[in-house]
TrEMBL record:
Residues 23-32 have a biased composition (Basic and acidic residues). One of its GO terms (molecular function) is transmembrane transporter activity. Keywords: Cell membrane, Membrane, Transmembrane, Transmembrane helix, Transport. GO terms for biological process: siderophore-iron import into cell. Residues 1-36 are annotated as: Disordered. This is Iron ABC transporter permease. The keyword Nucleus does not apply. It is a multi-pass membrane protein. The keyword Transmembrane applies. InterPro entries: ABC_BtuC-like, ABC_transptr_permease_BtuC. It is found in: Cell membrane. It holds the Pfam family FecCD.
Amino acid sequence: MAPENQPAAQPGAARRRSGRKHHPEDWCKPAENRAPACGGAAPTEAAELAHAVQVAEAAQNPAARVATRSEAVSPAAHPHADIRRYFARKVVVLIGMAIAVLLAAGLVLKAGSSGLSIAEIWEGITNRDSGREATIMWNLRLPRTALAIVVGASLAVAGVIMQSVLRNPLASASTLGVSQGAGFGAAVAIIYFGAGSQINSPSGAAVSVGNSYVVATFAFLGGIGTTAIILAISRMRRVSPTAMVLAGVALSAVFNAGTSLVQYFADEVQVASVVYWTFGSLGRASWNQIGLIAALLAAALIFFMANMWNYNALESGTATAKSLGVNVDVLIPVSLAICALISAISVAFCGVIGFIGLIAPHMMRRLVGNDFRFLIPATALCGAALLLLADVASRTLIAPTVLPIGAITSIVGAPIFLYLLLRRGFNE
């Protein structure tokens, strides 16, 4: 106990005297494993931070119970049993989502007009010399399934990271105009750089999108340009999340108008190529292109998982993240650039597929919360499962006609986006 005439220590003075800079990971460790600051301030501050995160989660989920401040600060508030239950629940969700992806992939492999049985599907996958079955599986259905998995995961992960770094639950590549910017770049490549062509066959003439890597390059340039504009707008003062979405709507309108203008001055083959590409399809990518998307997705996941503690800290606000040692000025633009890259490459090879990056993060936040150790992989699995199911719907609703997969995702995603927008407006 300090003498009566001695002035009380200022809050945070112990940390300043200690000279130790805490890593964001310190606040997510159990108290007994955390390196304490001088004077024992770290556990209390960590509990206060955990309480703040819980309050933020409760704002998104009114049914959640928020512990009182005294419960949060109490050393007995988080015993080992609670920690084990916490991790067990998250692992169960991840396992469940992995099973959902496998089941959805099985439906994609089964759907089709050829009427293959399960035994024939298995024979075609395991025996490359099985003739018709192997041709159908390895040239058509397996590439389609693999592309749906990597593209769905890419769009979903880009969405959850955008929502985190922009502090906007309505952010995604489609709602902020990134996909539309990438689409404009792809249209320019198809029309002005010879990426669209006509194929003549005995069954008639058709159009195709050739030189996909040129399309991918211009799609990335369009996506990264849109991302730069969104980042500049987000740094303006008094820009609410709703205003950010409205800015995305405005950018989408600008890029859609630009796409219409370049189509107006193109010939019929080029216009048909752009329209065919815009529909969105999972059936036109090669194994090399799938490998490129998968490699970029893997690199992006490595970066995002390496910074998962930083994203956890960012959930409590930019000021809190900076106080915990997060280099926000580098993390945010680099994260957005990577999101633009994986979104643009997906758009380049599949067309504009909307709302996967919006729906999947919101679904997984309700199941695993805001802990990015689990939220990132869960969202990737959810996005893959959603796009697989959308592909099944596009091929079976009015079979044998295959509907544009972008239309299917928009029909499902637009009402959900409207609900989230209205709910946020009512809360504000």
